[in-house]
């Protein structure tokens, strides 16, 4: 039997226990794919992959990016 160290949840498999920990106890887990992140900012940046949100826009050509570092690379390479 596998027991959660943070609550009274028990399960017969370690995979189910890992899934429980991700879903219930991790504050920085992606609620779409359950990937874990050490920081909220990294999780929020990851969510752009699922939503298609691209908040960073090139002021020269108008191309949009989900990450600021990708916009910076774009500007160095093309402008």
Automatic annotation (TrEMBL):
One of its GO terms (molecular function) is zinc ion binding. It holds the Pfam family zf-H2C2_5. SMART domains: ZnF_C2H2 (SM00355). Keywords: Metal-binding, Nucleus, Repeat, Zinc, Zinc-finger. Residues 2-25, 28-55, 56-79 form the C2H2-type domain. Transmembrane segments: none annotated. Gene3D superfamilies: Classic Zinc Finger. GO terms for cellular component: nucleus. It is found in: Nucleus. PANTHER family: C2H2-TYPE DOMAIN-CONTAINING PROTEIN, KRAB AND ZINC FINGER DOMAIN-CONTAINING. This is C2H2-type domain-containing protein.
């Amino acid at each position: 039997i596998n027991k959660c160290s943070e609550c009274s949840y028990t399960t017969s498999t370690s995979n189910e226990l890992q899934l429980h920990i991700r879903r219930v106890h991790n504050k920085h887990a992606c609620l779409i794919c359950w990937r874990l992140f050490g920081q909220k900012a990294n999780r929020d940046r990851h969510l752009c992959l699922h939503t298609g949100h691209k908040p960073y826009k090139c002021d020269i050509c108008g191309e949009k990016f989900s990450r600021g570092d990708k916009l910076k690379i774009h500007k160095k390479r093309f402008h």
